[in-house]
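Lab notebook page, bench 4
Experiment: in silico fold of construct C2
Operator: M.H.
Input chain length: 86 residues
Purpose: comparison with the prior construct
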Amino acid sequence: MRVDRHQRTLQAIFADPVRAGIRWSDVESMLRHVGAQISEGRGSRVRVALAGIRAVFHRPHPRKEADKGAVKSLRRFLSEAGVVPS
């Protein structure tokens, strides 16, 4: 079920120690699921807005997984927007 997949992605973002290797496509899908607006920026930039909080992330390339720095940034963004795992 989709909800379970999104919850697993959210839990992976908030896992300790910080995990790398979370598929970026799963991150974007989860962000859309929680109501984020996503738009393309220049190059690999992705603009995300959720609950009045805005952030710019870099879509990973050539790999398709987020590194630890991106996961930390996602965690901070989601916390500020009030989205935490249940």
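Observations: Strands lie at 22-23, 37-40, 45-50, 53-58, 65-66. The mean pLDDT is 93.
Next step: discuss at group meeting.
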